[in-house]
Amino acid sequence: MKNYMLILSAAMMMISACSVNTTKNTSHKPDSATQQNADKSVEKGLVAEMQIRDTIKVGDSVLLKFTVFNHADSAQHFCKWHTPFEPLMSKYLEVKDGNGNEVDYRGAMAKRIMPPPASSYIKVDQKGSILSMVDVLKGFAIDKPGKYTITYVGQNMSGLVVSKSVSFVYVK
Asked: How does DSSP assign 77-127, residue by residue?
């Protein structure tokens, strides 16, 4: 019985040590790790930007164009995880309505092994660019007309930084 209590106590301590901190950072100010990734991305010559149509009719696809530019004199690589260069498998975008309320994410949430394997990196040729399109409706519950703003928040995984958010008006 004494051993049982000892094992139970140890198990409880391990479970409590594995708790997850669910604090949400909505300030959009980069932490030091994010800033380091941004600095490395810029040093490497990689810059990303998003584009979307200004007005989209309810029922139409909400297509977001995501382009990565390489301004360096040599080929560069970035991790495709948390970018539109793979199927929507994580919440790497933040979508807010005109009142600043975050739109619910309803897409998949993949668990990843670390570090990312070599197959998860994409090469961008020197002075080149690559682009991908993603239908934001496949992961977010945008169902009411209004103005929406999309911000890229996947820089901690991909190493890419998008300096500007994009906005669109969803109309009937």
From this structure: EEE-TTSTTS-S-S--EEEEETTSPBPPB-S------SSPPGGGEEEE-TT
